Amino acid sequence: MPERMSPSTIMTILLVLLTCLWSLIFASSKSKHRKLPPGPRSLPITGNLHMLVNLPHRSLQQLAKKYGHIMSIRLGNVSTIVVSSPQAAELFLKTHDTNFANRPKIQASEYLAYGTKGMALSTGHDYQQ
Q1: Which residue of 10, 33, 36, 77 pairs with 72 in a disulfide if CB–CB is 3.0 to 4.6 A?
Q2: Where in the sequence is the signal peptide annotated (predicted)?
Q3: pLDDT tens track, the chain, 129 positions
Q4: CB–CB of 116/123 below 8 Å?
Q5: Residue 60 burial (CB < 10 Å; 0-12/13-18/19+)?
Q6: What's the CA gap between 62 and 30, in Å, rounded?
Q7: Cα 86 to the chain's mean position, in Å?
Q8: What are the residues whose beta carbons fall under 8 Å from the beta carbon of 84, sequence distance 6 or more?
Q9: pTM
Q10: E strand or H helix at 29, and its extent?
């Protein structure tokens, strides 16, 4: 009859496996990120959502005082760039205007907005001169 493992051995093996899994997840998430602006460290699943309390705009203002007018935060698993001054927003939008001008084509917009000709679901190419 096989010998049973002690509970401490099982816990040790489980702890080693969880540490390896966490390391793999952390390493793969780091490799996906490009060079981002400075920002607060985030939690693994919720990101920085715990920092946005009752008044999120005030929380972002406090974070901007610490990390600058252009900072990165994670909302869940989504990396987000926060721009908190008009000058920085103007600079950012002028530099990356083509990234914000285009929207992906959605099949539903073909039927709802007359072939993406409506204002809300247009792709951005429809209004460029």
Answers
A1: 36
A2: 1-27
A3: 557 878 888 888 888 888 877 766 765 565 455 688 899 988 888 888 988 888 888 999 999 999 998 899 988 888 888 998 898 888 878 887 777 666 666 676 666 666 666 666 555 554 444
A4: yes
A5: middle
A6: 26
A7: 22
A8: 60, 61, 64, 69, 70, 71
A9: 0.53
A10: helix 7-32
Residue type at position 60: L
The tokens of 3 are what? 């010998």
105's tokens: 């084509």
Instruction: Look up residue 59 and give its two tokens.
Output: 């929380």
